[in-house]
Design goal:
Elements lengths: L1 H13 L4 H13 L3 H14 L4 H13 L3 H14 L2 H13 L2 H21 L7 H6 L2
Amino acid sequence: MQEAETLARKTIEIDPALAKAHTTLGAVLAERGRKAEAIDSWKKAVELDASEFDALYNLTVLLSDAGRLDEARAFARQFVATAPPALHQAAIEQLRSSSDADRCRAAIMWNWGVALSRRHRNFMDVTLHEVLYSS
C-alpha cells in the first residue's frame, strides 16, 4: 500500500487538477486506516470534478460511518441525483435502501478494488477476490 500511496501522490504532484488521482489516493488512505485524510482527498476530487462519482459515493459511506450524517446525506443526494444509472445503478439502489453499515462496507471494498485495479492493472478490471485476498 505504501507504493500505491507514493504513486498516487506523485501523480497529484504532476497534475494536481486530476480528480481521479485524488480519488485513488483517498481509497489508498482509507485502506491504510487514515480515514480523515481519505475524506479530504475525496472532497478535493469532488471539488475538482463534481462528476467524480467514486469519490462522492466513498464520502457518503465514510462520513456516515464516522457519524457525520449531515455531510454524508449531502454527498449521497449529489451522488443519487447525478450518477449515471447505467453505470452506477447498483450503488444508487444501495444508497436508497441499505443500512449505513452495509453501505459502508460494500462501498469501501468496491472502490478499493477500483483504485487497486487502476494502479496494478493499468486500469483493467480486477476481481474483488484478488483485491481482498492478494498480498
